[in-house]
Amino acid sequence: RLSREGFCYFSRHGNLVTCGGALRLAELARKCADENLGSFSRLAGIPGTIGGALRMKKKEKQLDDQYEIK
């Protein structure tokens, strides 16, 4: 389990978003809306973090290769 300290960040560099795995999906959706990065509102109602969501999708092999995950 990731701690909020050190793994809960959001930064934008042009159209590139970098965020920590402990960032909640609702917070990611709000920050993307604040930055006018398109609609991520469908994430707002999903409980959990970006790290958990990526893990679940990768496990289900539903994660598109268009996303760069480091």
Task: Write the SSE topology.
Layout: H1 4-7, E1 10-13, E2 16-19, H2 25-34, H3 50-59
Antiparallel strand pairs: 1-2
Report on the structure:
By secondary structure, the chain is of the alpha+beta class. It is 34% helix and 11% strand. The protein contains 3 helices and 2 strands, in the order H-E-E-H-H. The chain has helices at residues 4-7, 25-34, 50-59; strands at residues 10-13, 16-19. Strands 1-2 form a two-stranded antiparallel ribbon. The longest helix is centred in the middle third of the chain and has 10 residues, at 25-34. The protein is globular.
In N-to-C order, the SSE pattern is: HEEHH
Count of beta strands: 2
Radius of gyration: 12 Å
- Report the portion of residues in β strands: 5-15%
Strand order of the largest sheet: 1-2
Largest sheet: 2 strands, antiparallel
Give the low-confidence spans. none
**Ends apart, CA distance between termini:** 17 Å
Structural class: alpha+beta
The average pLDDT value, as a whole number, equals: 80
Shape: globular
Number of discrete helical segments: 3
The helicity comes to 25-40%
